[in-house]
Specification:
The complex is a heterodimer of chains A (123) and B (132).
Chain A (H helix, E strand, L loop, with lengths): L5 H5 L10 H27 L4 H9 L1 H29 L2 H30 L1
Helix pairs in contact in A: 2-4, 3-5, 4-5
Chain B lengths: L25 H32 L1 H11 L2 H28 L6 H26 L1
The chains are: A mainly alpha (123), B mainly alpha (132).
């Protein structure tokens, strides 16, 4: 016998069965990105077009390196979840599954590549 | 029942607004632009990360990636990405405001839509001027 009422089990979980977890995760990452993006745009924009040694020296410094790492991790998680949401709206069945797997994988590959580049320049 | 009434013409069912004949509204356009800009940003990010990887690898590889990143093509991608990120940024802030239960009256929502469009163009111009 279930002691939880049906309402108690269903409450707040909606059609996705995960409730508001996806939405809340997007909210959290969006607020994080709201702080990260403007500063990163400035640092990246200033570095773009500079000679090789200046670029390496820029991203070897702690603040630009940590900021870029955070931007990549938070940004690529935000992208993976947002792209998943878009795919789930427009594609079905096997196509949907393959596109979601591709988008999530792409996000991790981009994040890992960027982190590797940062580690190589900063360490 | 086998001997039911003769077939009646199917009753007209209400149709949902058809995208091709539905008058575009600012709120709908600004909403779909949020999704388009957010997803399109992956191209700018890929170019930026490739450029970083090249910088971390060798001066020769950096020369190749930097030539692409600072060419007309790179300028186009990064300028487009700057607008996309600022649009997505403002639309995201609007989303947080909406989620808190504010700004949902039609007039206010349309004003916020214009704020996203105009604001994104202004911020893009400022960004490009600032980092030039």
């Amino acid at each position: 016998m279930r002691y939880l009422t049906a309402r108690k089990r269903a409450e707040g979980r909606g059609a996705s069965h995960t409730g508001t977890a996806h939405h809340w995760s997007m909210t959290v990452s969006s607020v994080g990105l709201a702080f990260l993006v403007p500063v990163w745009l400035y640092i990246f924009g200033k570095a773009l077009g500079q000679p090789h040694e200046v670029v390496v020296a820029t991203f070897a410094k702690p603040f630009p390196a940590i900021l870029t790492a955070l931007l990549l991790v938070v940004g690529m998680r935000h992208f993976a979840m947002g792209a998943t949401m878009m795919i789930e709206d427009y594609a079905r069945g096997t196509t949907r599954k393959m596109l979601v797997i591709f988008a999530v994988s792409l996000a991790w590959v981009v994040a890992a590549t960027g982190l590797f580049a940062l580690a190589r320049m900063a360490l | 029942m086998a001997d039911a009434k003769p077939a009646q013409p199917p009753r007209e069912r209400p149709l949902s607004p058809h995208l091709q004949i539905y008058r575009p509204q600012l709120t709908a356009i600004t909403s779909i632009l949020t999704r388009i800009t957010g997803n399109a940003l992956i191209f700018g990010v890929i170019l930026a990360v490739w450029w970083l990887l090249a910088a971390a690898t060798s001066p020769e590889y950096f020369a190749v990636a930097d030539a692409v990143a600072t060419s007309w093509f790179g300028d186009l991608v990064f300028a487009g990405s700057a607008w996309a990120v600022w649009y997505h940024y403002l639309a995201g802030l609007r989303h947080l405001y909406f989620d808190a239960g504010h700004g949902l009256e039609v007039k206010t929502a349309e004003k916020l839509g214009w704020a996203c469009i105009i604001g994104s163009v202004v911020l893009t111009a400022l960004t490009i001027l600032l980092v030039q």
